[in-house]
């Protein structure tokens, strides 16, 4: 049987790639002159909606890039009786780090925008932070839905699942 890619590696790779692309787009659109900024009519709330949407994507991708799934990674030496996929017990660190990094980026961009002929608006920073919260919440909801699938299939994410099954016999 072919060696499977661990779930952790797949999720983190997707998260890192998305994060890099979204940060590049945020930086580009944050520092171009205001008259060159494209008008996107389908996003509600004009400028604040743009900020929320961009930072929701950043929050989602940052969360995936930072997420550490229990049981993934190196094989454990000590034995744990069982491994299950519980979002509420292990995703808190990823939520906090995602919100802090995203907020720091938003604040830094708002501080630097006057150097590029753009205005500094703290309501934009508020929209950025609100977007981060929405993005992380969406990621948590998707992982909760997907997690129920993986809960009954530990071989997809836990390299130690065989040891635990054989020990129960």
Describe the model.
The protein is mainly alpha-helical and 169 residues long. It has one domain. 64% of the residues lie in helices and 0% in strands. The protein has helices at residues 7-31, 46-66, 87-90, 92-112, 122-151, 161-168. α1 runs antiparallel to α2, α2 (46-66) packs across α4 and α4 (92-112) packs antiparallel against α5. The longest helix is centred in the C-terminal third of the chain and has 30 residues, at 122-151.
Compute the number of helices: 6
Q: Give the radius of gyration.
A: 20 Å
Give the biggest sheet. Answer: none
Percent in helix = 55-70%
- Which stretches are poorly predicted, pLDDT < 50 over at least 5 residues? 79-85
Q: N-to-C terminal Cα separation, in Å?
A: 23 Å
Number of strands: 0
Order of helices and strands: HHHHHH
- Strand content of the residues, in percent? under 5%
Shape from CA axes?
elongated
Number of domains: 1
Which structural category fits the helices and strands? mainly alpha
Residue-averaged pLDDT, rounded? 78
What attributes does this structure have?
169 residues; 64% helix; elongated
Per-chain topology:
Elements: H1 7-31, H2 46-66, H3 87-90, H4 92-112, H5 122-151, H6 161-168
In summary, what is this structure?
The chain is mainly α and 169 residues long. 64% of the residues lie in helices and 0% in strands.
């Amino acid at each position: 049987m072919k060696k499977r890619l661990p779930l952790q590696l797949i999720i983190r790779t997707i998260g890192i790639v998305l994060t890099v692309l979204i940060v590049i787009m945020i930086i580009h659109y944050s520092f171009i002159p205001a008259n060159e900024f494209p008008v996107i009519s389908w996003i509600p709330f004009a400028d604040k909606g743009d900020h929320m949407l961009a930072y929701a994507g950043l929050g989602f991708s940052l969360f995936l890039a930072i997420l550490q799934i229990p049981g993934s990674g190196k094989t454990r030496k000590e034995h744990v009786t069982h491994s299950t996929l519980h979002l509420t017990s292990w995703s808190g660190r990823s939520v906090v780090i995602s919100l802090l990094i995203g907020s720091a980026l938003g604040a830094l961009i708002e501080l630097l925008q006057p150097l590029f002929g753009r205005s500094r608006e703290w309501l934009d920073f508020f929209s950025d932070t609100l977007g981060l919260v929405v993005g992380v919440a969406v990621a948590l909801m998707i992982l909760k839905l997907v997690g129920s699938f993986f809960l009954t299939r530990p071989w997809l994410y836990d390299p130690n699942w065989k040891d635990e099954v054989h020990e129960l016999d």
